[in-house]
Design a protein that fits this description.
11 strands; alpha+beta; Hypothetical protein af1432; four-stranded mixed beta sheet; three-stranded antiparallel beta sheet
Length: 458
């Protein structure tokens, strides 16, 4: 029975083979409504407005991540029970995402609620006696129970677990998640920044002994491919994930939803939206944001909001937002939500002015003064400074360990000049997003020249 393979044809990994046993481990989750929802949530938010091929979804990525986890588990010879746990954890690791993935998190004040906060509620719907009974009926040799599922949930939620090797496969600087999304996002965006030799990386993976115990690491033969992989991630962040046009459009999307949320309750033109699941969610989010701005008892309020609104959130996907954008773009109303929806619907891209090396505090102050002075002429959403700091590799908190020819274990920075050079270095990218409708206004042009002439940040 173990020699029968179930095959998924994948544009990134080719033929993804799962044994009949592995298929029974993951198929009950794949066929569930919550996982199928991920078919309708794009991996890269509004990235396809810039890279037209980037229409792949969280569903694609989670399947790929599960496959990569199985390959790592086979390579380091994990027992079946452990392989089952990491495959399920990697399959479900993104189950909590909302529409347009990370972009949707921006609707909350200071991004106080992220997709990870919703994840326990999705997982709880699997962790029931009824689900375990049905699951175990098809998995006589590898039962799931509450203890095992808590282990899976702990790995997904980055909680301390006994087996660090399993946790590293699910979430680390060498995890299945990154190994899949770099290759997948690179492929669908039509770029080569994210490519690295995955098969050689897999060949060089090993269980190594660290001061904290056994960890997932590499042999000395894999130092070169890890350098390549980390540089690939850096280039993908700078050129794809933090693409200025992509982030500016996602800023438009967040501003649309925020302005709509503030107006839904009292603006008569939006009456038909109020009773939709997205409309109800946005009104609740607006109430949450008003309380969150006071800064009192945030954690309690946050948990109450998630509990009260999970029933709507768990059904939302990109289509709800696209439908809303089309509806708003067809309205004849002078309202920010309508204006922004029209920009998105007709791909009226904002203009970008890079501010990488200027003093950003001075830039923010200058922009705020400009907005206050011309409050009646320009809307707040039309001008925004967007910052995207990122760190390519963290050698201090979570190093990648290498086992050398003698079997000694050390952080990779001790063997690699490149890894040591970029370790824990925070890179800053910043830019001014300008609604193209106002980009040629003399006052705005003067503002951009002034911002670009600011002193270089030291």
């Amino acid at each position: 029975m173990n020699n029968i393979f179930h095959v998924i044809k994948d544009p990134v990994h080719g033929t993804m083979q799962f044994t009949s046993v592995e298929d029974k481990w993951v198929k009950p989750f794949i066929d569930s409504p919550h996982f199928q929802r991920l078919r309708h949530i794009k991996q890269l938010g509004m990235g396809d407005y810039i890279f037209p091929g980037a229409v792949h979804t969280r569903f694609n990525h989670c399947l790929g991540c599960c496959y990569v986890a199985s390959q790592i588990a086979h390579k380091i010879k994990l027992p079946d029970e452990d392989r089952q746990l990491v495959m399920i954890a990697c399959l479900l690791h993104d189950i909590g995402h909302g529409p347009f993935s990370h972009a949707f998190e921006g609707i909350f004040h200071e991004k106080l609620i992220r997709h990870e906060d919703w994840t326990p509620y999705f997982l709880a719907e699997y962790g029931t006696p009824e689900f375990f009974m049905e699951y175990n009926h098809g998995n006589a040799r590898h039962h799931l129970n509450e203890e095992k599922f808590q282990h899976i949930a702990g790995m997904i939620m980055h909680k301390p677990v006994k087996n660090h090797v399993l946790a590293d496969i699910v979430s680390s600087q060498l995890d299945a998640d990154r190994l899949d999304y770099l290759l997948r996002d690179s492929h669908f965006c039509g770029v080569r920044y994210g490519e690295f030799d995955f098969r050689w990386m897999l060949h060089c993976m090993a269980i190594v002994q660290s001061p904290e115990g056994a960890r997932l690491g590499i042999t000395h033969k894999g130092i070169g491919v890890v350098e390549h992989y980390v540089m690939a991630r850096r280039l993908m962040v700078r050129n794809i994930y933090h693409s200025q046009k992509k982030l500016a459009l996602e800023h438009f999307l967040v501003e649309l939803l925020r302005h709509l949320a503030e107006s839904l309750e009292h603006y008569s033109a939006y009456a038909s939206i109020r009773n939709t699941r997205l409309g109800k969610f946005l009104m609740a989010a607006d109430e949450f944001n008003q309380v969150a701005q006071t800064g009192t008892d945030l954690e309690t309020h946050k948990m109450q909001f998630i509990q009260d609104n999970y029933s709507n959130y768990k059904i939302l996907c990109d289509y709800d937002v696209y439908s809303l954008i089309r509806q708003l773009a067809g309205m004849c109303a002078e309202h920010p939500a309508v204006e922004i929806a029209t920009r998105i619907q007709h791909r009226k891209m904002p203009k970008i002015i890079r501010l990488d090396y200027v003093d950003l505090k001075a830039a923010e102050q200058t922009l705020n003064e400009f907005k206050a002075k011309y409050h009646d002429d320009f809307q707040d959403w039309q001008l925004a400074i967007i910052q995207t700091p990122h760190r390519s590799y963290s050698g201090a908190d979570d190093p990648i360990f290498v086992s050398n020819e003698r079997g000694d274990m050390q952080p990779i920075g001790n063997f690699s000049f490149m890894m040591n050079a970029i370790s824990d270095k925070l890179e800053h990218v910043a830019f001014l997003s300008i609604d193209k409708i106002i980009a040629d206004d003399k006052r705005v042009m003067s503002l951009t020249k002034h911002l670009q002439a600011l002193p270089v940040y030291q």
